[in-house]
Amino acid sequence: MRINVSISIWLLIWMLLESSTLGNPEWPSGMYGLPRPASGCPKSWKEGMRYHDTEDYHSHNLHSVSYHFAGTVNKHGIRQEFCVKDDPLKENDFDILWPEGKYCIYKYGDHCPIGLKEGWIFWDDENQEDLDGGNAEQGFLPEGVYELDTLMYFCCSTKGNPTIPIELPIQRSFYLMAFNSTECQKVKGIEGVSEFIQWDDEDRGNANAHSQIAPYGVNTDAWNTRIYYCYYEAGECGKSGVVCQNSSEDAAQPIQLSEVVDETFEHDHPAPAGKDNSYLSKHNRMGKAARNSGVAVIIGCSVAGVIVGTAASALILKYILKKKGYAETPEYESDEEEVFPMPDHFY
């Protein structure tokens, strides 16, 4: 009878973990950033932008035909917009890890998320500011240095197979950055589309540089910077037989930034007025329902632990959580692969 009760409780725990609340993937733990699509950022994430003043003459600023970014590309400059998860929201001893694959995200904070490798890209932006007003930044930005030139840090998954689908939230559109090739990492229930942006950097004494680990495309041209992205459109996941709940009621509005208009060149871009977070939406934490479901699982596990024994229940719990994409929080370790730090002479 005692064995039957134990089995029943563990079946209940398994069903809770497989329920719709915990069954829908959540964004992995930790702090990081993603490119901002035109459809906006996930709820409670912060927003920001970097404007690159690019080469003025014979501009080679380019973007792919397929283009779903919130930012802009014109012959005088490129504006990147970001979605930043600045709260790890760690409520227990388990983290949701980024799955193995081939992709990159932005670094935010002191460490890359567990399992990802650090890299960087240095843009040698336009030296002359008289025509376009120079570089600008606002809001929340990936880890980096934003001055006359741009240094930005990335976190990349380097070991997985891009053809093996990974689980990520697909309720709304998002971007990853490609790693090692233009091939997009497969994501369960949603299609990925390859896109790129190319920056025409300073032509005189160009000092563009990047680490060995970086988003794909930086080796294309030593004088210009190109990055390949993977766009995952929520509406497209129906093609894979998944019904998407992509409500428009919480769709983010375009970032409102100060702008100056240059009638001579018939273009506009954000004025370099420094950081201004006033346009950011109020930062909200996770809903009580999601937390309560997690508490229910923990309580259920505790009851089961009393019946089947603490050691045995702990082992079973770790196995179940690992299958669901959770992992016991380890200490941060140094990268196994060599990471090249930013050369001192750039700054």
Binned strand content = 25-35%
- Assembly state here? single chain
Instruction: Encode the helix/strand succession as letters.
Output: HHEEEEEEEEEEEEEEEEHHE
Query: Would you report the number of β strands?
Result: 17
Shape: globular
Average pLDDT works out at: 74
Outline the secondary-structure elements.
Blueprint: H1 2-17, H2 20-23, E1 32-35, E2 46-53, E3 62-63, E4 77-85, E5 94-96, E6 103-107, E7 117-123, E8 136-139, E9 144-146, E10 150-157, E11 174-178, E12 192-200, E13 209-210, E14 224-232, E15 259-262, E16 267-270, H3 288-308, H4 310-323, E17 326-328
Antiparallel strand pairs: 1-4, 1-6, 2-4, 2-8, 3-12, 5-17, 6-10, 6-11, 7-10, 7-13, 9-10, 11-14, 12-14, 15-16
Brief overview, please?
This protein is an alpha+beta fold. It has helices at residues 2-17, 20-23, 288-308, 310-323; strands at residues 32-35, 46-53, 62-63, 77-85, 94-96, 103-107, 117-123, 136-139, 144-146, 150-157, 174-178, 192-200, 209-210, 224-232, 259-262, 267-270, 326-328.
Task: Characterize the structure shown.
The protein is an alpha+beta fold and 347 residues long. The chain has one domain (29-282). The protein has 4 helices and 17 strands. The chain has helices at 2-17, 20-23, 288-308, 310-323; strands spanning 32-35, 46-53, 62-63, 77-85, 94-96, 103-107, 117-123, 136-139, 144-146, 150-157, 174-178, 192-200, 209-210, 224-232, 259-262, 267-270, 326-328. Helix 1 runs antiparallel to helix 3 and helix 3 (288-308) packs antiparallel against helix 4. The longest helix has 21 residues, at 288-308. The radius of gyration is 22 Å and the shape is globular.
